[in-house]
Amino acid sequence: MLFTSYGFIAFLIAIFLLYYIIPKKYQWMLLLVGSYVFYAFSGIRFLLYIAVTTLTTWFSAVRITAIQKERNEYFDAHKGEMDRDGKKAYKAATKKKTRVWFLLCLLLNLGILAVIKYTDFVIANINSIFGTETAFMRFAVPLGISYYTFKSLGYLIDVNRGKYEAQKNPAKFALFVSFFPQVIQGPISRYDKLSETLFAQHSYDRIKVRQGLTRVLWGFCKKLVIADRLMPAVKALSGSPEEFQGAWVVMLILFYAIELYADFTGGIDIAIGIGQMLGVDMEENFRTPFFSKNINEYWTRWHITMGTWFKDYIFYPISVSGWMMKLSRSAREKMGKGVGKRIPVYLANIIVWFATGLWHGAAWNFIVWGMLNCVVTVASYEMEPLYKKFHGAARWSNTIGYDIFQMIRTFWLMGAIRILDVYRDVPVSFAQVGTIFTSGGWGEVFGEKFSRLGVSVPDLVIVCIGCVAMIIISILFRRSGEKVRPCEMLTARPVLLQTVLLVGLFLLVVIFGAYGVGYDANQFIYNQF
How many domains, the chain? Predict the structure, then answer.
């Protein structure tokens, strides 16, 4: 059931009406039932996977909390009776117990994810290397498995760290894992933040509902009016690399950047907007990423909840782990302080970017994409002293013009790396980027060949108007200090203007949405991840 389908719209209307009709104490239960009904539309058999992840994580977290509470109660009861060594030994014994539950749950759920998503990738590489003909398993990938697995494991890690106690009610935890607006493509929420409003009782709030509805319509507008309108051109350009080279690759980089941004942020806007309509707050997943001046800033603004997940649960634990500290000390002694200081950061970066690439898909193009991001990130870190000297010497480096240059540079750098996502073939991707410098084609960009892309000049005009609207909203968001959500700014106007805005967005989607003869509302790009 896609967000853009009529079935989902009918489903959402039914949930919304029932949500504010039934007694408030049953609201979260309605969301749980609705979430599982929504998930069942992707395939009844897939309910088993999300149920296994939910139950095993809930039970393991409950056991870990019980062991931690038992340890704390024991210390309170024997305060002053235990010496330092006794406390240390008891802590070690309880930590061993919690580690067993933690590792069993971690391995089980990561194992499910790995087997389903990566078995055929491993088989394909074994066949290629050894010349074997092992048959592929061809597992059907459950809807949103990467998202709900990461949400669950983040929760388990937080409980194991003692950040908060486990949720005792398995049904409430099941709602956290399966909450239907998030299960398709995020945001990847943390339990302590989402639970504050997810399980609360909500009265109808016309302001929040209006803000949420505005954001939902804005999401539909970005998806149907902008992203899906460019989709045929992206498919045509990437589907015939031998025909579309040079200038056409530049066009593809630009079109795909716009399509991906409008598609992904559109889906997130719909998810967050639905949450607002139901009184449930979610984290922002994007903060004007195309205004970033370098790649490090870009990755703090793009898919924020995924980036912070990898940082908090992989990067930091690895970079400060015992074995990493030993390796760092050894490197300091043998190769100097500078090398020893860099090893934990760089190794953790490599692991994180490899995992990020693999998370996006079981294919070498995603892994290479991740490693290229890693290389650029590390290179930027190494060149930071030179940047500071340059900015100190060049007065014009602090001008608006130079800021714009940095934004444009980052946009095209990220677009060039992202080309691996478009062609899905590493050699072809590199070759196509190379043709930008070796092939021309600029004169034929808007010639006869352009008509084969499946987009017309009116289509491009509509996309351009949509891009201008996205830029204006992004500028307003930046000027507000990024504290006021985009659609809260738009709806902070007199009621009449708010109504005009809602009706206007609705008409934009109905009139200019890319559907009808020759079109099909496409699956959101990040659904596949």
Answer: 3
**What's the pLDDT at 517?**
37
Report yes or no on 40 lying in a domain. Answer: yes
Domain closes at, from 173, 204, 235: 204
Q: Are 195 and 239 in contact (CB under 8 A)?
A: no
CA angle 521, 288, 476 (to 5 degrees): 105
450 domain residue, yes or no? no
Q: Quickly count: other Cβ atoms within 10 Å of residue 148's Cβ.
A: 26
- pTM for the structure as a whole: 0.92
Residue with tokens 């960009």: 445
Checking if the pLDDT of 316 tops 50, the result is yes
Nearest to 467 by CA among 290, 212, 331: 290
Kindly state whether residues 418 and 475 are assigned to the same domain.
no
Q: Which two tokens stand for residue 199?
A: 């399980």
In degrees rounded to 5, what are phi and psi of residue 64?
A: -65, -45
Tell me the pLDDT of the chain averaged across its residues: 89
Range of the domain at 178: 6-204
For residue 357, the one-letter residue type is: G
Q: What is the pLDDT of residues 403-451, one digit of tens each?
A: 999 999 999 999 999 999 999 999 999 999 999 998 877 777 877 888 8
Is 402 inside a domain boundary? yes
pLDDT for residue 65? 96
Q: Is 445 within a domain?
A: no
